[in-house]
Amino acid sequence: MADRRQSAIGDLRSQVEAARALVAALYPILENDDDARRDMVEGETDLHDAIRAGVARIVEIAALRTGIQATTKVLKERLDRLDAQEERLRAAMLAGMEIASLPRLETPLGTVSRKAVAPSVVVTDESIVPAGFWKRADPALDKRALLAALKALPAGARIPGAELSNGGATIQIR
User: Alpha-carbon distance 103 to 114, whole Å?
Assistant: First the structure.
């Protein structure tokens, strides 16, 4: 299956190259006739079919992504339930060993030992903890504000360390 996917990507790339070469060769003849160029590319290459196959794969990827995300959510919920169950089992075993005054118990699967735990912090009211115990947050760049400022600059003005990209192109599939 991975070979088929790589082959589809390779086919699309080769068809793009074939279309590019065809348009380059015929550009002096067709000049600004976009319809003729489109018709020539469609008739002489499999680019349209390769793009249709690309769209089909993108739709398949979207479906797989949705399924994987749903499965991941279900597995995460299951993991959380198992973690909670483990915590309850450990608490019950500790209580039983304390009641029976058992410092340790050997079982076929492992030795269970009671162990002292070091003290940990319990914050009862964050608002009254002295400032010396707080960490400063690392500064974060506000890219939205920077983008708005760059777009609002008059021609020739700059913001040091930042510039607008040329944008680019993408495809939209509905």
Answer: 5
Amino acid at 152: A
Tokens of 154: 């008059």
Query: CA separation (Å) from 129 to 119, 124, 125, 134?
Result: 18, 9, 7, 8
Q: What Å distances lie between residue 64 and 3, 11, 79, 109, CA to CA?
A: 18, 22, 22, 40
Dist. CA 19–CA 26, nearest whole Å: 10
56 and 14 in contact (C-beta within 8 Å)?
no
Phi and psi dihedrals of 105, rounded to 5?
A: -145, 125
* DSSP string of 62-112, one letter each residue: HHHHHHHHHHHHHHHHHHHHHHHHHHHHHHHHHHHHHHTT-SEEEETTEEE
Q: What does the pLDDT look like over 87-108, one tens digit per residue?
A: 999 999 999 999 999 999 999 9
Q: What is the pTM of this model?
A: 0.58
Q: How many contiguous H segments (helices) and E segments (strands) does the chain have?
A: 4, 2
For the purposes of burial, counting CB atoms within 10 Å of the CB of 122, is it exposed (0-12), middle (13-18) or buried (19 or more)? Answer: exposed
